[in-house]
Amino acid sequence: MARIAQFVSLLGLVASVVSATRPIASVSAIRHSGRTVGREVVNADNTVDRMSCAVTLYVTGKRSDTAVLYLTDVFGIQLPENKLLADSFGRAGYLTVAPDMFNGTPAPADINASPDFNVTEFLYEHRPEIVDPVIASAIRYMRTQLRVKRIGVTGYCFGGRLTFRTLTEGSGVEAGFAAHPSFAENDEIVNISGPLALAAAENDDLLPTERRHEYEELLRSSGQPYYVSLYSGTSHGFGVRANVSDPVQRFGKEQAFFQAVRWFDTWV
Question: For residue range 182-223, what is the model confidence (pLDDT) as tens digits?
Fold first, then answer.
């Protein structure tokens, strides 16, 4: 019993130290509507091809040594919900940078109402070898212009796959969080070089149950710390575009956000 008491006391001490270092974000950190508070900046970077040597970045939050690199879904930084969620990470204590990975031409906000939109063509035009240099440019900006020392990467849907790709040796990123990622390949998952947390939807055509189980095995094989959460009553996209008038979906979106924040609080 004495040893148990000592262990409990030690856990309390560790928790108090972590809390003193970075206070736990309150529920008020996350906003689903209203005015966005960040700013867009254009980063001239002559190492980026096909982007007219400039990448637009949405920057939000106070100056800090630790930051979040926010990789959006196909709707880009133009979607208000993406900017609002980036702002939420800013309120949680992380300087946050979201690159415009689509150079001003994201997918339409309502894909189903856009019959002329070709998903296959869009994904090809923004395949990893096109988008990876944009992400690398954003990381360089964070390191050199914002003087960030440690970075966590968070990605949603399209950006979820890129989270795995970015969390590799030498990328300058310490930890990752992916919500309902799509189209990630096995080697991209198993080759991560840092801790990764995953938030999955109960109903997700792009990450069905069988594939999610494969993700879990690949994460285990990576040898890195990992954490997987499954949110009932949610579908693909809930981490950003949940119907917050539905209390179940609202809980899923908010809890996934706090899952990411606590993960970064621990590993970044």
Answer: 999 999 999 999 999 999 999 999 999 999 999 999 999 999
Q: Which fold has domain 34-267?
A: Rossmann fold (3.40.50)
Q: Quote the longest CA-to-CA distance of the chain.
A: 69
Taking phi first (over 0 means left), then psi (-120 to 50 degrees means alpha), and beta for anything else, what does residue 115 get?
alpha
Domain spans in the chain, listed from the N-terminal domain onward: 34-267
What Å distances lie between residue 3 and 7, 11, 13, 15, 17, CA to CA?
Answer: 6, 12, 15, 18, 21
* C-alpha–C-alpha distance, residues 110 and 249, integer Å: 19
User: Which residues are designated catalytic?
Assistant: 157, 204, 236
- The answer to whether the CB of 140 falls within 8 A of the CB of 45 is yes
CA atoms within 13 A on the CB side of 159: 29
Element of type H or E holding 32: none
Displacement of CA 127 from its chain's centroid (Å): 18
Q: What are phi and psi of 108, to 5 degrees?
A: -60, 145
